[in-house]
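user: can you give me the structure for this one chain? tokens are fine.
assistant: on it. calling the predictor now.
[tool input]
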Amino acid sequence: MKEQSSRPLAVFDLDGTLADTAHRQRFLERTPRDWDAFFAAAPEDPPLAEGVAMALSSAEECEVVYLTGRPERCRRATEDWLTGHGLPAGRIFMRRNDDRRPARRTKLEVLRRLARDGEIRVLVDDDAFVCEEAERAGFTVVRAGWAAASAALKDAQEREGRT
């Protein structure tokens, strides 16, 4: 059996929670959706002040963990973005490049795995489906409602399993 983490976890989503994706939504509003361009533009995301402040505050008592639907191929750019915006160092859990399952399924799998090794104090996410599933599973959730909602992104998260 693994040793439990001594610090509780604060789990943060990226897109729409810490990173403002509004400038790249246009790539999801066309048919077909341009996923390569959508993810290539991620390094230019402005930070969302509310989410960043919550991550920094959480780091005082918790180990900050990032749980994103971004594909693994975006890892380096994601690490650089987090560092560049002064976010706490932490493990990053990303979607396999070929995984197209809904974010509510992939994220809940990771949350359950993390919970086996320690306490999850909070999940902070903007995806209503992810939040609902996490709450049903007994996790404490903060719904990140500070970014402009995007119907295209919501559809992509649920139907196409892309972010």
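assistant: here you go. Strands lie at 9-12, 63-71, 92-95, 120-125, 141-143. Residues 9-160 form a domain with the Rossmann fold fold (CATH 3.40.50.1000).
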